[in-house]
Prior knowledge:
The protein is an alpha/beta fold.
Amino acid sequence: MSPWIRHRLIGEWEAAGTALAHHARSACDKFLDEVFWRTYCKGWLEMRPSVWAHYRAACRAGADRCREERSLARRLAAATEGRTGIACFDAWACELVEHGYLHNHARMWFASIWVFTLELPWALGADFFLRHLLDGDPASNTLGWRWVAGLHSPGKTYRARADNIAKYTGGRFQPAPAELADQAPAAQAASPPAPGPAPEPDPLTALDGEVALLLTEDELDPASLPVDPAAVDRVGILDCSAGRSDRPCSQAVQRFTAAAIDDAVARLAACGVRAERLDDRAALGAWLRRGADELLVAHPPVGPARDALGDLDGLVGGDGPRVTRLLRPWDERAWPCATRGFFRFRKYIPRLLAEAGLASAGE
């Protein structure tokens, strides 16, 4: 389900609502935590966009080191190709490349071994994930790797333990304790920046003339945006997947993203709305030059979408259409709560569910 949630073909509110419609809140707490972890990460990064910029800079610095240090380049290749000699890690590396997915536990173990046992730059591991995960989300992926390395909650790291891996893989993997690092020192770095203001939507006034709607791969359910698609004359959907990394994403990621966008295009066409996939900035520019009186823009979250659309006003030009930025009520309510760690955010979950009109079975 996570790749569909990542592109919002399924909304977090739909996933949470379906679980609560069939189970008591106490019975699906862990599932709800996973759903809200994504929401939390998006909100946290929205209020600290510099963390994404620093991550991208760390990726480039790591790539530069690999060009200068042959031993690092060899160790990186062994890790990404599943040739480290650590059986569980190598299996997960191959599984990720082949299937585009890893269980959450495996992601944490993998990241910990990458950072503390193999002593590879954390940002290059995050980049490896983001290029291969079908559900690769800039916010949750970046925060997950930062958390393991001790950058998200300063001084707190995650160390993969042999007994834990053996227990939760049902004995499939039984690494010897000596294969894994017995220490997990936190990376030396400044504390995360203080949160800035959370995004707010522009006022949505009466629409006049030709109306265009611009989406990205992050928002592929236009029917649940705070505007009726029937009021829109044409829709453009920008594929930002190439912006996840300076290296190409896997073919599986590219195919899934393109298919997800094409699905949204087909659903809009079934409603009588003209829509098309925009594969790059050149296509976006051509689409914008066709002109419109009103341009509605689904909020581009921090990451490749924001990188692509950060200068939208410049792309549109002073004589262009009136631009209105849309923000989903779910995000508008939840993102401002992501000021600290997830456990602080978790206290808001009952209120956020109530505000979304979601109640558990029997309530």
